Amino acid sequence: MTQLRSSAKPSVVIGAGGHVLPPPATVVPMATLDPRTAAQLAFLVEADKLKSIVRANPLVDGSRRENSAEHSWHIALMALVLAERSDEPVDGGRAVCLCLIHDLVEIDAGDTPPWDEAGRATKAEREAAAADRLFALLPADQAATFRGWWDEFEAAETPEAKLAHAVDRLAALMVNHASGGELWRRHGRTEAMARARNGKLADWVPGLLPLATALLDDASAQGWFADPD
Amino acid sequence: MTQLRSSAKPSVVIGAGGHVLPPPATVVPMATLDPRTAAQLAFLVEADKLKSIVRANPLVDGSRRENSAEHSWHIALMALVLAERSDEPVDGGRAVCLCLIHDLVEIDAGDTPPWDEAGRATKAEREAAAADRLFALLPADQAATFRGWWDEFEAAETPEAKLAHAVDRLAALMVNHASGGELWRRHGRTEAMARARNGKLADWVPGLLPLATALLDDASAQGWFADPD
Fold first, then answer.
1. β-strand B3-5 against B27-29: which pairing, if any?
2. What are the tens digits of pLDDT across the range B29-61?
3. Given B33, B44, B67, which is nearest A78 (Cβ)?
4. What percent of chain A clears pLDDT 70, i.e. is strictly above it?
């Protein structure tokens, strides 16, 4: 049977962002599938790798760090629950699409946490290259749709993209707070850093600031932030 | 600060489905939040537990079994890519919502694989009780919306619910095929069992049968199914 490797990457490489790329290329059967179905299958099998991209943030129970696939699910759920806080009308369905695909580029580019200054310098370039490769696995029309969603998310200008950015930022605060702030202490994140980072919510969905402030105030009262040097 | 435990469950219990329930209740700060926001936060923090519900199916790279949160993300993505195979008009946004929430009940009820006959006898009852508890964490209007989505998924009658069921079923075939069928051999799943299980696609989205058949034919050719007794 003719087979196509859905990725030509070597099995383990340390990427520019310092992360280890996922394991070997996945082989999907092609000969009995029409080209459109084969392309869709190749994309969906490749997307499975997002389950192996580990983020800095923990599960709420502290048992392990979360991965970017389950994180994407979580913020899509947050977008549905919190869309009402937007001060503009939001197409909830499209906001959810942006949440679902916003981190796919991390399959190649890895997660780049805010304290990775070297990684952040090359993040935009690495993620754009990843978007070029990954969405092109799809049939051309769907590739354009998915790439359009990703570009829309990155631009953070539409109500849906601003909501997706807001819940992405708020999710990190929520799980770090709910898990007792262990990550903040471990990475030397001070209260000022956390407040500055969540201040961005004012640009995206100001209606989510009271929730962020309540979580930050409680974390401060509990002494969960790192001390300033 | 007044605090509310988002779950009154003990830390570790073997559930009726034979699974271990997630770790202790999560504490969320309530005093500084209005009741609506507090309810939304309680639900979203509780939802994090779906990341700890381990399914039978593996990641494509075989490195571990997938959890129900990342699986829900994956089938939402599948619904977006494969909605065009439905023979009825599909509201993609609502189909994605059904995918996102369809497994939340597993936080209480656990995953019940097809070979767990004892678990399957009580599955409907356990999952309905879980839906009663989990969606009620939300404000009443959102609880009704989310419960409506879950009831719609369970009924499998609307085009969106049928698509969600189809990609849920197809996802298991896709990841088991892409990972080399190890699960089929380990659990004694024969070709006849797999074909019968995926024959259900004809009831939901017949347009996905060719893809399922190609994967089943290839798995059969590779000798990945268990031998019949």
1. antiparallel
2. 556 799 999 999 999 999 999 999 999 999 999
3. B44
4. 86
Amino acid at B78: M
Number of Cβ atoms within 10 Å of the Cβ of A208 = 23
* Mean pLDDT, residues A171-196: 95
Residue in chain A nearest B138 by alpha carbon: A81
Please tell me which of the candidates B82, B97, B174 has its beta carbon nearest to residue A80.
B97
Prediction pTM value: 0.89
Mean pLDDT of B146-173: 98
Q: Which residues of A touch B221 (CB under 8 A)?
A: 1
pLDDT at position A4 over 60:
no
| Surface-to-core class of residue A113, CB atoms within 10 Å of its CB (0-12 exposed, 13-18 middle, 19+ buried) | middle
Question: Which residues in chain A have Cβ-Cβ distances shorter than 8 Å to B25?
Answer: none
Q: Give the per-residue pLDDT at A229.
A: 77
What ipTM describes this predicted complex? 0.89
Are B87 and B163 a contacting pair, CB within 8 Å?
no
Beta strands in chain A (DSSP E): 3-5, 27-29, 54-58, 65-67
B5 Cβ neighbours under 8 A, 6+ residues apart? B25, B26, B27
Q: Each residue of B84-139: pLDDT tens digit?
A: 999 999 999 999 999 999 999 999 999 888 888 999 999 999 999 999 999 999 99
Of A24, A44, A50, the CB nearest to B174: A44
Helix H, strand E, coil C: the string for B149-202 is HHHHHHHCCCHHHHHHHHHHHHHHHHHHHHCCCHHHHHCCCEHHHHHHHHCCHH
Helices (H), A26-116: 35-47, 68-82, 92-101, 106-109
DSSP at B115: T
Chain A residues whose CB is inside 8 A of the B98 CB are none
